[in-house]
Structure formats: C-alpha cells, structure tokens
Design brief:
This protein is α/β, with parallel strands linked by helices and 290 residues long. It has ten helices and seven strands. The structure holds nicotinamide-adenine-dinucleotide (NAD) and zinc ion (ZN).
Length: 290
C-alpha cells in the first residue's frame, strides 16, 4: 500500500506511480493542503507533466480510501490555503447554489481558519465531487463539469509568470468562463460580477494585468480538450448548474481573456482560427508546471 502524505502535486505523481508499478498497486492519499482536501485527493485522476504539456501521462486509478489532515492547514502558506478555496467555489458554482451563498456569508471565517467553517466547506465540496465522479468515474461525459474554469485556467498556469498556483489560475479561468457563459448560454444577470466578488473576498486573483493573451491562446490550442480550432468549455447559466461540451470560438475567448487583463478589445478582430500550434517543446508552455 502506497500512502501519499502531501498535496495535489505529490498525490498526482504518487497515484500515477501506484497505477503503473507492477501494473497497479493500492494507494491512499492523505491530503495536507486545502486544494487536495477540497478536490485533488478525490476521484482517482493521477498524472505527471511532460515537457510543455500538463498531465501528459496519467491514469485513472481510484485510491482504496481518501484521508485528510485538517490541522495541517495551519502550517500552509496563505496563498496555498486560498488556492483550495477556488476549487471549493468551483464545486459550488457547478452544483451547489446553497454552498455558494454560504461561502458569500462565511468568507471571513474561512480566512480566519475557523475549523468548523473549513469542515463545512470541505464536506460540501467533497460531496459535489464524489457525486460527479461516482456518476462518471472515467470522464466519458458528465465528469467534465469539474473542468469549469480549467480551459483558461490550465493555459494561464502554463504561460503566466510569475507562476500562478493552480487555484489562482482557476479563479481567473472561472471568471473567463462565466463571462463566456453570459455571452453564450444567457447566464443570469450579474453572474460574472457575483463570482468575481466572491473570489476576491476569498483572497483569490480576479484580474491579471500582465496577461499574455497571445501565448495563452496558443496554450489553449495545446489543450487536449480542444477540437478543430475551438476550445471546449464548461459553461454555467446560473450558480449551481453547469453544462459541458460548449465549443467556443477563438474571437470570443480572446475577448474573455482581454476582459480579464483589463485590456480593451483590439480594433482589428482577432483571427477566426487558432494561432499555429507551437512545436513540441518550443511553445510557450515549455517547462510549465502545475
Ligand atoms: N488529480 C486531480 O484531480 C487534481 C485536481 C486539482 C488539482 N490537481 C493538481 O494539484 C496540484 C496542486 O496541489 P496543491 O495545491 O495541493 O499544492 P502542492 O501539492 O504543490 O503543495 C504546495 C506546497 O505546499 C507544501 N505543503 C503541503 N502540505 C503542507 C502543509 N500542511 N503545510 C505546509 N506546507 C505544505 C508542499 O510541499 C508544496 O511545497 C496541481 O498540480 C494541480 O494540477 C489535481
Ligand atoms: Zn483544478
């Protein structure tokens, strides 16, 4: 039995090792970061990165059990602590409107490391993730809703310097996804403002002044979820509901990224096609971490 005591980075790598070693051995994550407690320890997705490609090699390998050490949050740096709050917010947006409203009321308690508040938020987020994974363990369909905010988030994680933490990138990615939702699925009025406001109160980034729009677009083109020059996105018509498989055209994504960076839209419309796919190992995602 392999026990992986640590955060999502260690859990992903240890889980992949457990999936591969002797064609699979038992393993258990013991989560010690807010992000792993909230999200990554559950679901059996394991992976390691390759040169310029996140999660290049991986496997679905469910752990025997999932454990977490809530007390470990006390030694976690603030930025890492907040990173997990982005995944908790994601679970609320995609499937639990009550949790979202609770987060709006209790952002201060979470910031103050109130153990009861953290337990409430983690239990609710874990329930969302466990239900989604149980319905679709190998991501044949519905599990994709867990990627809300991740199309743009993964690209920002790969491109942006200084490096964004996973949850920070997902915070920005969720704002971009809700902006696109307002354009594409007639999301309720004020949805993006509401999500942005909560993420800001949770201490997560809500704007990215130095956003490298061109290279982020290229990185999205590199995303394995992209098909035929359109990004595949999860969108939300309202808090508590998400739908997957939306093909989003490049000009709209370009505008969403510019709105994140506070840049005005360019006078000449952006190309209707994605920028050329960067050559392997030479693209903007080279050396990208998680
Ligand atoms: N498999 C999945 O389903 C899934 C889901 C979401 C995210 N992820 C991945 O998880 C990764 C991020 O994981 P993370 O946010 O847990 O960060 P992390 O695992 O990179 O840990 C962050 C840092 O905190 C340290 N640390 C761990 N526990 C600590 C503690 N209790 N006190 C002090 N320091 C501690 C670690 O050594 C590390 O330096 C990303 O690569 C992301 O892609 C995977
Ligand atoms: Zn994530």
């Amino acid at each position: 039995l392999l026990v992986a005591v640590g955060g999502g980075t260690l859990g992903d790598a240890a889980g992949f090792f457990a999936a591969s070693y002797l064609r699979g051995i038992d393993w258990c994550p013991l989560a010690t970061t807010s992000l792993s407690l909230a999200d990554s320890a559950i679901g059996g997705k394991t992976a390691i990165n390759g040169p310029g490609v996140k999660n290049l090699m991986g496997a679905f390998h469910q752990p025997l059990g999932v454990y977490g050490a809530l007390e470990a949050l006390h030694s976690l740096p603030r930025r890492h602590l907040r990173s997990g709050l982005a995944e908790i917010t994601k679970c609320a947006v995609i499937a639990d409107a009550e949790l979202f409203a609770w987060l709006e009321r209790n952002a201060g308690a979470l910031e103050g490391l109130d153990p009861e508040a953290w337990e409430h938020a983690l239990v609710a987020a874990n329930a969302v993730k466990a239900a989604v994974v149980a319905a679709d363990p190998r991501e044949r369909g519905g599990r994709a809703v867990l990627n809300f905010g991740h199309t743009v988030g993964h690209a920002l994680e790969a491109v942006d310097r200084p490096r964004l933490l996973h949850g920070e990138a997902i915070s920005l990615g969720m704002i971009a996804a809700s902006w696109v939702s307002e354009q594409r699925v007639r999301a309720e009025d004020g949805l993006t403002d509401r999500i942005r406001s909560l993420l800001g109160r949770l201490g997560l980034p809500v704007q990215c002044a130095q956003l490298d729009v061109v290279n982020t677009m290229k990185a999205i083109g590199y995303d394995k979820k992209t098909r035929g020059g359109r990004a595949m996105m999860v969108l939300t018509p309202r808090v508590g509901l998400a739908t997957f498989g939306h093909e989003v055209e490049w000009p709209m994504l370009d505008r969403a990224l510019r709105s994140l960076s506070g840049l005005a839209a360019p006078k000449t419309p952006p190309p209707a096609h994605p920028p050329a796919r960067p050559r392997r190992g030479r693209g903007p995602t080279r050396g990208a971490g998680r």
